[in-house]
Amino acid sequence: MQVNPTLFPNLPYKASDLAPVSMLATVENVLVVNTAVPARSVKELLALAAQKPDTVSFASPGAGSQAHLAGELMALSGGVQLLHVPYKGVGPALNDLLGGQVTMMFAQMSSVLPHVKSGKLRALGVASLKRSPVMPDIPTIAEQGLPRFEAVSWYALMVPAGTPQGAIDRLNTETTRLFARPELKDKLAALGMDASSGKPQELAASIQAETVRWAEVIRQKNIKPE
Asked: In what order do the strands lie in the sheet with 29-34?
């Protein structure tokens, strides 16, 4: 939602058509490389990219995807040129990363964790502002010289604009109660998701901040949807 207005200027709806209720869950993304890549940290990876512009490639499941935007954000933040290689889905992108056809990829933790544990991929950094409890030994990208680097996927509950505030408040209360249940937290954790919640105004602020941040990346890198 936060990138669509910039990627698709002729959308049949506007952000103002929806009203925020509550954040539901966040999903951590991690930067992984093929084990043949000599870099063992984000700093070393950026140094490699600086030495040979456009030879360090990153896979994504498609133009405009979060994985694509995260790679472009890294290029901008690190002052390097990275080669984007779009695929039609996560599966093909991950297969080529495992096969060594591409250098790196931003992917959801649950997708790549088995490959990291088996030694087929190397995790260089978590794309959130805090370390993951699933991979506590892997530093965040922000810790490695790119302050405030963040590329987190999230899910939120929205309703049509004009919904009575009383109804929004009730939905928020019930959603917060539901997502605080340990059994739901555990089920989401098994999927690599972190149950979340918050007030409508907090979600609105998050959407606004994310929209501004990703719009700048899209404009600077002239990203177009497929």
From this structure: 83-86, 57-60, 104-108, 29-34, 121-126
Residues 21/200, Cβ–Cβ less than 8 Å:
yes
Q: Phi, psi (5° rounding) for residue 156?
A: -140, 160
Decide if 17 contacts 1 (C-beta within 8 A). no
What is the per-residue DSSP string for 115-145?
HHHTTSEEEEEESSSS--SSSTTSPBSGGGT
Summarize pLDDT for 120-178 with one digit per residue, the tens: 999 999 999 999 888 899 999 999 999 989 999 889 999 999 999 999 999 999 999 99
- Amino acid identity, position 202: E
Q: What's the sign of the alpha-carbon dihedral 176, 178, 181, 183?
A: negative
Three-state DSSP class for residue 92 = helix
Domain 34-124+134-141: top CATH class: alpha beta
Instruction: Tell me the per-residue pLDDT of 208-224, one tens digit each, with 9 for 90 and over.
Output: 888 888 889 998 988 87
Angle of helix 200-220 relative to helix 165-179, nearest 10 degrees?
A: 90
Q: Smallest Cα–Cα separation from 23: which of 156, 153, 152, 151? A: 156
Distance CA 126, CA 114 (A): 16
CA dist 172 and 198 (Å) reads: 8
- Residue 111's nearest CA partner among 103, 102, 120 is 120
The model's pTM: 0.87
Other Cβ atoms less than 10 A from the Cβ of 220: the count is 12
